[in-house]
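Section 5: illustrative case.
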C-alpha cells in the first residue's frame, strides 16, 4: 500500500479531508469511484432545452435581482443567441451575487424546469468563463464526499493516482479470459475520466464492462477472503466425536413423530462434521416450523453421549425458555440434566446454574446472551448452538465460542458451532457472505401442517375482523392480535398494544384476553404465554416479541396491525406462529390506506402471494439490499461497494471456482489481490 503522503501534489489539508472518508492510501483513493456523471462536454442552446434534462448552458447575465416575496431568492437571467434561461437560488452567498453580475459570461449546469417566466434552473452549478474557454473533454465524475471536501478537490486527487505503477494487474490473465472483461488500467481510466461518447446509462446503472470488471474483482476478493477463513478453521482443533447415537435412537423412539427426509439428510451432514478433528461451522436454514430444534437436539446428544457439554443460545427470553422447556421434555427422561441461564433470573437460581455448568453436572445449558458472560465457565464445552444467529453481534458469537475448554489437552479445543436461522438466506447472499460456512437446508415441512391463508384487509374493515376473531375464539380456537408499538408515539400514531388490550377487553367481555410485550418482567411474560399455551387465554394481544419461538398448535388466527410498517422477514416469522396444528389457519394483514408507502405495498404483495420463506427472502433482498438484510454489525463483514448481488449474480457464479483454483495455484496473486481490495476493511471475521 502506498500512503497518500508519497503522492506528489496532495497537500496535508487534502490528505486530512480524504482521511475523513477512510481514504489513507493511493489504492483506496483509486477505488473511491463516482456515484454518477455530469455531461459537461457539450453546450446546449437555450432554444433546444427540454424539460427534465440535465444539461449545460453558456450565456451572458442580462439581469440580476434579489426578491423577498414569497421568500428570499436570487434571480438571474442568462441569455445566449437563441433565448433566455432563468436561474433561481433560494440559498446563496455574497460571492455568488458578485459572480453573476450583468455582463458576466457564465457556464451553468442543472436540470431544466418549467418556471413562471419560462424555462429555469434551480441551484445550477455555475462558473465564470470566456468565449475561448474549452468545454470538458470527459464526462465529469461526481464522487461520494464529506463536508469541506469539494468535488474539484476530489477529482484533482484521483487524477494524481491514475498512474501506471498503481494500475497493474494483480491476477493472471486466465482469470478473465472467459468473461471478455477489460483490463484494470483501462477500466479505472474510463470510470474516472469517461470520454464524451461513453454511454451514460450503462455507466450510471453500472452495467458497463468497466464497472463489471471491478465488480468481478471485488466478488473474487470476497470469495478469496472467505475461503481463506474456511481453510484457517480447518487448521484449528476441535473434539472429534464418534458417530454413535444410542441416546439419539432412544429419543427418536419416544417421539410421537418421525423425521422428514430433509431432517434426516441434515442430521447425517452434522454427524459427519462432528466426527472431524476441526471445528464444525454449519448454518442450518429452515423455514418457520420445519423442525430445526429436534435436529439441534440430536446433534447435542451426539456430544453428550461422549461426555461433552453443549450450550444453546437464543436472542430472547421467550424463545430461550421455549427451547428449555421443549428440550427438558425430551432429555430429562433420558437422565440428562439441563441448566437454565438468563440475565433476569434470581441470584440464587443463577448461582446454582453456574455451578452445575462449571462442574459438568449440566450437560446442556440453555439461555440468552447471559451464556457468554465472563462468569460462565464450562467444564468441557464441545458444541455451541446459536438460534436466530443473525440477531447476535459477531463479538457475542465469538465470546460463546471461546468458552471451549482445554479438557486436559495440550492445546485448547474449539467447540463445534451450529447456527440456526428461520429467515432463509437467498442463494446469492449465502454464496457471498456465508462462503466460509457449510450450509444445510431443511426444505420441507413436517406432514400434517396446513397451509396458512393470508388475507390483506384495509383498516376501515376493522369491525369485520373483530367479528372474525370472536367467532374463532367462541368455536374453541385461539387468536393473536399483533401491534407494533407498546406506547403511544406521536410520530407514528400507531395503534398500541396497551390501548388494544383495553379495547379488546371492552369489546369482548366474554373472552379471556391476555397481553404480552417486551417491557414486561420475564416472569409475568412467561405466565401469560403459559396461560395462552394452556388455552386459559383465548385472545393474546402482543407486540412482535412473539415473532420467534412461540408454538401454540390451537392458535389458528392472527391479525397483524399496521402490517405495512413491518419488514418481510418479520411478517413471515409472525405468520408462522399459526398453522402449527391441524386446523385451517389464517393470517390477516391489517393495513392503513393512507400510511402505506410504495415499499409497504411491495412487501404486502410479496407476503400475500407466497408462503415460501426462500422466495420471500429473495424478494426482501431485492427491496432492501444486502446491507439491511445482514446488518454489518451483526455479520462482521464489510458490504460490497461495487458489485450488486442481483445484477451481478453471473459474476459471483464465475468467481467461486476461480477463487478455489487461485488459492491452490497462486498464493502470491491472492495476497496481492486481497491487499488491493480489502486493505481498508477490517479482517472478515466470521464466527
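Designed sequence:
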Amino acid at each position: 500500500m502506498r500512503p497518500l503522503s508519497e503522492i506528489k501534489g496532495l497537500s496535508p489539508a487534502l490528505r486530512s479531508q480524504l482521511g475523513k472518508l477512510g481514504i489513507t492510501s493511493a489504492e483506496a483513493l483509486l477505488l473511491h469511484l463516482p456515484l454518477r456523471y455530469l455531461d459537461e462536454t457539450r453546450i446546449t442552446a437555450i432554444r433546444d432545452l427540454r424539460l427534465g434534462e440535465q444539461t449545460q448552458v453558456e450565456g451572458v447575465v442580462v439581469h440580476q435581482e434579489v426578491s423577498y416575496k414569497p421568500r428570499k431568492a436570487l434571480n438571474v437571467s442568462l441569455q445566449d443567441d437563441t433565448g433566455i434561461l432563468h436561474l433561481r437560488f433560494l440559498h446563496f452567498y455574497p460571492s455568488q451575487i458578485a459572480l453573476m453580475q450583468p455582463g458576466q459570461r457564465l457556464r451553468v449546469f442543472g436540470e431544466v424546469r418549467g418556471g413562471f417566466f419560462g424555462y429555469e434552473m434551480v441551484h445550477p452549478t455555475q462558473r465564470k468563463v470566456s468565449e475561448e474557454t474549452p468545454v470538458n473533454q470527459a464526462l465529469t465524475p461526481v464522487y461520494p464526499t464529506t463536508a469541506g471536501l469539494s468535488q474539484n478537490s476530489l477529482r484533482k486527487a484521483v487524477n494524481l493516482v491514475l498512474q501506471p505503477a498503481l494500475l497493474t494487474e494483480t491476477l493472471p490473465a486466465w482469470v478473465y479470459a472467459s468473461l471478455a472483461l477489460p483490463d484494470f488500467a483501462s477500466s479505472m481510466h474510463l470510470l474516472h475520466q469517461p470520454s464524451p461518447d461513453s454511454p451514460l446509462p450503462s455507466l450510471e446503472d453500472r452495467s458497463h464492462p468497466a464497472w463489471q470488471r471491478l465488480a468481478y474483482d471485488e466478488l473474487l476478493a470476497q470469495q478469496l477472503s472467505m475461503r481463506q477463513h474456511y481453510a484457517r478453521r480447518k487448521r484449528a482443533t476441535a473434539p472429534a466425536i464418534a458417530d454413535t447415537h444410542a441416546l439419539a435412537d432412544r429419543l427418536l423412539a419416544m417421539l410421537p413423530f418421525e423425521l422428514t427426509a430433509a431432517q434426516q439428510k441434515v442430521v447425517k451432514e452434522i454427524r459427519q462434521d462432528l466426527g472431524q478433528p476441526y471445528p464444525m461451522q454449519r448454518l442450518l436454514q429452515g423455514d418457520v416450523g420445519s423442525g430445526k430444534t429436534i435436529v439441534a437436539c440430536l446433534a447435542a446428544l451426539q456430544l453428550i453421549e461422549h461426555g461433552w457439554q453443549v450450550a444453546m443460545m437464543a436472542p430472547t427470553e421467550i424463545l430461550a425458555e421455549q427451547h428449555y422447556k421443549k428440550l427438558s421434555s425430551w432429555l430429562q427422561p433420558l437422565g440428562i440434566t439441563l441448566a437454565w441461564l438468563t440475565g433476569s433470573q434470581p441470584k440464587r437460581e443463577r448461582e446454582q446454574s453456574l455451578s452445575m455448568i462449571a462442574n459438568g453436572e449440566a450437560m446442556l445449558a440453555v439461555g440468552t446472551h447471559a451464556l457468554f458472560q465472563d462468569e460462565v465457565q464450562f467444564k468441557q464445552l464441545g458444541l455451541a448452538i446459536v438460534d436466530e444467529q443473525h440477531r447476535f453481534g459477531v463479538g457475542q458469537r465469538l465470546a460463546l465460542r471461546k468458552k471451549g475448554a482445554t479438557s486436559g489437552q495440550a492445546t485448547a479445543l474449539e467447540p463445534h458451532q451450529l447456527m440456526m436461522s428461520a429467515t432463509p438466506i437467498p442463494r446469492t447472499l449465502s454464496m457471498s457472505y456465508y462462503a466460509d460456512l457449510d450450509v444445510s437446508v431443511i426444505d420441507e415441512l413436517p406432514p400434517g401442517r396446513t397451509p396458512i391463508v393470508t388475507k390483506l384487509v384495509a383498516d376501515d374493515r376493522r369491525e369485520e375482523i373483530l367479528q372474525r376473531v370472536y367467532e374463532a375464539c367462541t368455536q374453541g380456537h385461539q387468536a393473536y392480535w399483533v401491534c407494533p408499538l407498546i406506547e403511544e408515539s406521536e410520530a407514528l400514531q400507531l395503534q398500541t398494544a396497551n390501548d388494544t388490550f383495553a379495547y379488546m377487553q371492552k369489546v369482548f367481555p366474554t373472552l379471556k384476553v391476555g397481553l404480552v410485550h417486551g417491557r414486561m418482567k420475564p416472569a409475568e411474560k412467561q405466565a401469560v404465554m403459559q396461560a395462552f399455551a394452556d388455552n386459559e387465554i383465548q385472545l393474546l394481544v402482543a407486540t412482535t416479541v412473539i415473532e420467534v419461538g412461540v408454538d401454540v398448535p390451537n392458535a389458528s388466527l392472527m391479525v397483524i396491525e399496521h402490517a405495512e410498517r413491518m419488514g418481510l422477514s418479520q411478517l413471515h416469522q409472525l405468520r408462522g406462529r399459526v398453522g402449527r396444528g391441524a386446523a385451517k389457519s389464517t393470517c390477516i394483514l391489517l393495513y392503513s390506506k393512507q400510511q402505506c408507502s410504495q415499499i409497504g405495498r411491495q412487501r404486502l404483495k410479496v407476503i400475500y402471494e407466497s408462503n415460501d420463506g426462500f422466495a420471500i427472502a429473495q424478494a426482501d433482498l431485492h427491496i432492501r439490499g444486502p446491507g439491511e438484510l445482514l446488518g454489518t454489525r451483526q455479520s462482521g463483514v464489510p458490504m460490497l461497494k461495487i458489485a450488486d448481488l442481483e445484477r451481478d449474480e453471473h459474476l459471483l457464479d464465475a468467481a467461486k471456482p476461480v477463487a478455489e483454483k487461485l488459492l491452490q495455484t497462486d498464493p502470491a496473486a491472492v495476497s496481492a489481490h486481497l491487499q488491493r481490495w480489502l486493505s481498508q476493511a477490517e479482517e472478515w471475521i466470521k464466527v
